[in-house]
Amino acid sequence: MSVKIGNIDLGEFPLLLAPMEDVSDPPFRFVCKQNGVDMMYTEFISSEGLIRDAAKSKQKLDIFEYERPIGIQIFGSDIDTMREATEIASLAGPDLIDINYGCPVKNVACRGAGASLLQDIDKMTAMTKAVVESTHLPVTVKTRLGWDDNTKNVYEVAERLQDVGIQALSIHGRTRSQMYKGQADWTMIRDIKRNPRIEIPVFGNGDVDSIEKAAAWRMEYEVDGIMIGRASIGYPWIFRELKHFFQTGERLAGPSITERVETCRIHLQKSIQWKGPKTGIFEMRRHYANYFKGIPHFKEYRMKLVKLDNIADIEEVLSEIESNFANLEVIY
Ligand SMILES: Cc1cc2nc3c(=O)[nH]c(=O)nc-3n(C[C@H](O)[C@H](O)[C@H](O)COP(=O)(O)O)c2cc1C
């Protein structure tokens, strides 16, 4: 059965790219889209930044036709600011607006935004209602299990946010205090799926990094789809591999070196197109090691790549990698 968010038809068991600051920008989204991801989100965008017209926040509103369906994710601590930010974000023309109630980092959570709203469900509900009422678009929410081990309240959160009109919920199976430590636990996500009151799609998030895990957790936790973050960094092929497996029951071979180089080149080119040569080349530096994980002594190439600031020279090193490792089977 197809999963739907409002009028958006995501097909059966969709795979979502998690919103990731400094990662899920248009260049990275391009390579994920090429590899079959079903829905994507922008990096989180500060509601305060949006209403102040801050350049950094505004730039994150850039979305492209080929990216659809795509959600713009916003966060904030003040309800009126969130309302105004929703109106601004809606004008950018996304398919939906997502609210971040999951971010654990101090800068966000300790300023009353992100996961900190898990400590005040009344405010979270009021904020969500305000966002829903400020846009014609579907509103979705991404959150965690709760603030800490003693307050795992996502079950109640799911009911209350559905009641004020959210149309899908993505849950990262950790609490705020866990940050990214320990294992994600999807048990409560299944509890929510089994709650007869819950009708909206529920997506599982946290630690999916292989076909085995995705297939096992799909069955075990009964989720409507999976959201993947870290495992896609430097490995956007995870989407096509999972899709293929779910459609056919068979495993695709991993990408060849040629394909890895090609995707890395595209990512670099898109980065330059969108950010300009200086920032585009600079920000691409953090991605090289991820694209070539498993290559012996890659450090040597990485050292070269991160020092170069001319695209032709970078392209040359990439060609060198391609020819030097043409016959290597990378085990990922
Ligand atoms: C570098 C990085 C940036 C992130 N930025 C965001 C963000 O902007 N908004 C958000 O909701 N979650 C953010 N997250 C959390 C991810 O969306 C996701 O919930 C988390 O990484 C767990 O999923 P994973 O195990 O598949 O990576 C970020 C995570 C990482 C690693």
From TrEMBL:
Q: What is this protein called?
A: tRNA-dihydrouridine synthase
- Whose protein is this, by species? Albibacterium profundi
Locate the DUS-like FMN-binding domain: which residues?
16-315
Q: What is its EC number?
A: 1.3.1.-
Reaction catalyzed: a 5,6-dihydrouridine in tRNA + NAD(+) = a uridine in tRNA + NADH + H(+); a 5,6-dihydrouridine in tRNA + NADP(+) = a uridine in tRNA + NADPH + H(+)
Q: Which InterPro entries match?
A: Aldolase_TIM, DUS-like_FMN-bd, DUS_fam, DusB-like, tRNA-dHydroUridine_Synthase_C, tRNA_hU_synthase_CS
| Gene3D superfamilies (UniProt xref) | Aldolase class I, Putative flavin oxidoreducatase, domain 2
Lineage, highest ranks first? Bacteria, Pseudomonadati, Bacteroidota, Sphingobacteriia, Sphingobacteriales
What family classification does the UniProt entry report for this protein? Belongs to the dus family.
Entry superkingdom: Bacteria
Concerning PANTHER family, the annotation shows:
TRNA-DIHYDROURIDINE(47) SYNTHASE [NAD(P)(+)]-LIKE
Function comment:
Catalyzes the synthesis of 5,6-dihydrouridine (D), a modified base found in the D-loop of most tRNAs, via the reduction of the C5-C6 double bond in target uridines.
Which cofactor does the UniProt annotation name?
FMN
User: Which keywords annotate this record?
Assistant: Flavoprotein, FMN, NADP, Oxidoreductase, RNA-binding, tRNA processing, tRNA-binding
Q: Which Pfam families match?
A: Dus
A single Gene Ontology molecular function, please? oxidoreductase activity
